[in-house]
Design goal:
The protein is an alpha+beta fold. It has one domain: Outer membrane efflux proteins (OEP). Helices cover 66% and strands 14% of the residues. The protein has ten helices and six strands. It has helices at residues 2-18, 29-39, 41-61, 115-183, 188-222, 250-260, 262-283, 324-390, 397-430, 434-438; strands at 26-27, 67-80, 95-113, 232-233, 288-299, 305-316. It has a four-stranded antiparallel sheet with strand order 2-3-5-6, with no helix packed on it. Helix 2 (29-39) runs antiparallel to helix 4 (115-183), helix 6 (250-260) crosses helix 8 (324-390) and helix 7 (262-283) packs antiparallel against helix 8 (324-390). The radius of gyration is 38 Å and the shape is elongated.
Length: 440
């Protein structure tokens, strides 16, 4: 039954690899996250390592549980008694037989007392917990990657749409200028200048369209889906406004991160596992007690036999191991120091991640506010410049320059929103709540 289940799982995985999922025409952030967290190779690798750790956990638990085996044999043999050092009067060759021998019995073995094995099992239980935390961390990483790629696609789309609007303004200006040239109140140079603006913006719009396609292809690749750009992104949830409340108190955010970050919890479990491994190896110097019991049928054939049994207990106490135990202890203590160093390093990284992300959000909020105000002023400037040109006060140079400044303001606003959204995603990742925040 277990083999059948394994075959079904492997077949499903192979089928999924051969037939990646299709991306819907309108891709929401939630759909993207569900797809990535189902198909991500990063997550599958982490899950594979967890399965390996689970297997090791079962291996090291096994010696603590009574082991029951069944053994049976039927043989026909001869024996050379002289080869065994036995001499029987009247038997010149020393060879007896052939004769039949049969034995079938159940064998029970159990380590009644082995502190080293118990602590080793406990160590691998911590390693298993560590691997589980790394799976959770992989989910956080995948979530951050998806949100980042989705934001990049949103930003590219916004740039394309903004340039389309700017080109429409430039087209309107050209038509207005051409009409004024026809009426004899504007020079051909003005029309030439307006057409250059139209062509320039069309070129930028085409580049932005290609950037949007590339961003969507990158997103599809991260989702491990059928790679295509035939879909649209429009989910404003990717900008993550709900994350701002997590940035109100830096100390609280750091404490939250240390309590919930899966990678930090995993390294804590690694330290615990290393400590238990040191204790396990030191415990090999202690005596161990083992029970062995057998019961079964013994005779010449399965028909001609009788019941036999045995019960034995043994105690083992290492006296001299040639420095083997001491060497293992030094090795394990070195691994423990390495695990503690990794934990300390990660703690500093967690604090840095949190504080950097919070600063990014604070800066991003200011940039968004400033750029939004600048866009409003630029639009007012365009309107005023068009009025001046329409009234014949000036040529269309002021209008073209005002539209350029509007384009710069729009680009700055798009970059600011993208930067703020990415900073919020980094905060969610830094405190270990990326999946919880964005997967709704």
């Amino acid at each position: 039954m277990r083999r059948l289940t394994l075959l079904i799982v492997l077949a499903s995985t192979f089928a999924a690899a051969q037939n990646p999922p299709e991306i819907p025409p309108q891709l929401t952030l939630s759909q993207a996250l569900n797809m990535a967290l189902t198909n991500s190779t990063v997550l599958r690798e982490a899950q594979a390592r967890f399965d390996q750790a689970s297997g090791k956990y079962l291996e090291y638990r096994s010696p603590l549980i009574p082991q029951l085996n069944i053994r049976a044999h039927q043989s026909h043999l001869t024996i050379n008694l002289l080869g065994l050092g036995l001499s029987i009067p009247g038997v010149t060759t020393g060879i007896i037989g052939p004769f039949a021998s049969m034995d079938a019995r159940a064998i029970l073995t159990w380590d009644l007392l082995n502190i080293s094995n118990f602590r080793s099992w406990d160590s691998y239980r911590s390693r298993k917990d560590s691997s589980r935390s790394f799976v959770d961390d992989a989910r956080e990483v995948v979530t951050l990657n998806v949100v980042s790629a989705y934001l990049e696609a949103l930003s590219a789309k916004a740039s394309r749409d903004t340039l389309s609007e700017q080109k429409k303004l430039a087209d309107d200006l050209y038509q207005l200028t051409r009409d004024r040239v026809t009426q004899g109140v504007a020079a051909e140079l003005d029309a030439n200048r307006a057409m250059q603006q139209v062509n320039t913006l069309e070129q930028k719009r085409q580049e932005a369209e290609q950037d949007y396609v590339a961003a969507k292809l990158n997103l599809a690749n991260i989702l491990q889906a059928h790679v295509t750009s035939n879909f649209e992104v429009a989910d404003e949830a990717a900008y993550g406004s709900a994350v701002d409340q997590a940035t109100s108190d830096r100390d609280t955010a750091v404490k939250t991160a240390l309590a919930s970050r899966p990678d930090y919890r995993a390294l804590e479990q690694d330290v615990k596992a290393a400590e238990l491994e040191v204790r396990s190896i030191k415990s090999t110097r202690l005596p161990s007690v083992k029970l062995t019991a057998t019961d079964g049928q013994s005779g010449s054939t399965p028909v001609h036999n009788g019941n036999t049994y045995s019960v034995a207990g043994s105690i083992e106490f290492p006296i001299f191991t040639g420095g083997n135990i001491r060497g293992q202890i030094q090795d394990a203590e070195g691994a423990l120091r390495e695990a503690r160093t990794a934990l300390d390093k990660n703690r500093s990284q967690v604090e840095t991640d949190v504080l950097t992300a919070i600063s990014g959000v604070e800066w991003g909020l200011k940039e968004v506010e400033t750029s939004a105000g600048n866009v409003t002023l630029s639009r007012q400037e365009v309107d005023l410049a068009r009025q001046r040109f329409t009234q014949g006060i000036t040529d269309n140079t002021e209008v073209v320059n005002a539209q350029d400044r509007l384009a710069q303001g729009d680009n700055a606003s798009i970059r600011a929103r993208y930067t703020l959204g990415l900073a919020r995603a980094n905060v969610a990742r830094a405190i270990g709540a990326a999946e919880k925040t964005y997967r709704k």
